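Weekly structure sync, notes
Attendees: PL, DS, HV (note-taker this week)

Item 1: GNAT family N-acetyltransferase
DS walked through the input record. Source organism listed as Floridaenema fluviatile BLCC-F154. Sequence as pasted into the shared doc:
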Amino acid sequence: MLTLTKRPYGGETDLEAIANLLEACEAVDRLEQWTTVAELEQDFNAPSFDKQRDLQLWEDDTGELIGFATLWHSPGGELTDGYLGFRVHPDARGGTLEREIINWGEERLRELAKEQGVNSVKLRCNSRDNQIDRIAILQQNGFTADRYFLTMQRSLEEPLAEPQFPPGFTVRSVIAEQDAEAWVEMHNQSFIDHWNHHDLTVEEFKHHCSDPDYKPEFDLIAIAPDGTFASYCYCPIFPEDNKRSGRQEGWVGILGTRRGFRRLGLGKAMLLSGMQKLLAAGMKIAKIGVDYDNPNGARQLYESVGFRKLHTWVWYSKDV
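Item 1 (cont.): predicted structure, written out as tokens:
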């Protein structure tokens, strides 16, 4: 029987072992979710993440890291849910470790709920729709599917239409320090009516902008004639991922238009502007993630400019 030892994060000395575990998982799962020590460190330093309480490691009797889990939760507003992210070494799957990880996630979320005086919360987890074993484990442990997301892609070697903006609107790149509060307010107003929205904080936005891969020239905002930040599109490029895949890909990482400025063509214009930025940077493929049931027709917008489904991700939840 496998002997498991659970322990909290030990600091930077654990980063390489976590990266190696994720590498072993990626070799089997082929999700194209590569990571580096630097990326892990950036993630763990997020303002809302408690490295000592929201991250757990599992080792076997030789001291090898075979399990890794994080519990992410919103820092602002009433606690409603938490997201459990976990990976298990391929050689250690199918036993008791997955159940132990889910138990830890439930206990940590209950602890947070008690601290905040909340009676009902949901634990969430996701899976690619072809990860049959992972889905079976989630279902066996009380999770049910409640939302579907698509990863879509489009060739940038095909012609791109020119963006058409309403009269009086201007477009420029974000200036992080100067624009932080207005950008965050625009983001929260743009996504307030979306599934499972949690308000972003200015502190989180500034942390995002501190990422070494963040390039402000790919972070565009459309400004209304009265100076209001009305729409935005951020298109990141991940050089390490492209090196691993051998492809030149960029992402439409986030696209939104605040209420009061919708149905003016801003979303399409910003999407095309972002894709032009990726093309100018030498990218040949653009990818995007979208909620299948997005209430504002995002999937139909992406399809209208040539994006097509690549993968489906399923979000699962259970009451805790």
